[in-house]
Specification:
Length: 187
Amino acid sequence: MGSFVLAVGLWLRFDPETVSLLNGDKAPDTYFIGVYILIGAGSLVMLVGFFGCCGAVRESQCLLGSFFACLLIIFGAEVAAGVFGFLNKDKIIEDVQNFYATTYNENNNSTLIISYQKVLNCCGTLAKNCPDQEPGTKDCETAIKDFFNSKLYIIGYVGIGIAGVMIIGMIFSMVLCCAVRNSREVI
């Protein structure tokens, strides 16, 4: 599961569409901060999972207990990050929309603006439409909101799945820890 979280974090970080939209001197960092947290959590879960496997193979109560404690801490951190992301979802979208609007008003032919319009299939802002806008093309501020809502749902679903697997991992580690303790008492 740690490698899966790491893969999703790396995909969100290096996805050409997302990177092209958020590269720039004044681009908001809020989105990438959340993605970096996801990458760090995935790496940490992989490391903790390795130690959990070692604890299970060696039947070590100490390693299994440490595995449980680390999973509990990571679980709490992921819940906190999920709540933070959910509460700041509108701020992230608003920051990117403001960045686009500011950049569009300064120079509407820059490569960044052209990248937004190409990736999102949009043109202009709510206040200022493109002169050569085709009928049915939406403004880029609405397209930005739709784009990030779809990406944030992916992150949310992945987080819920990982939380479920982590809870199962915590339950199994405590059951195995208790079984190891009981087997040693019998001997």
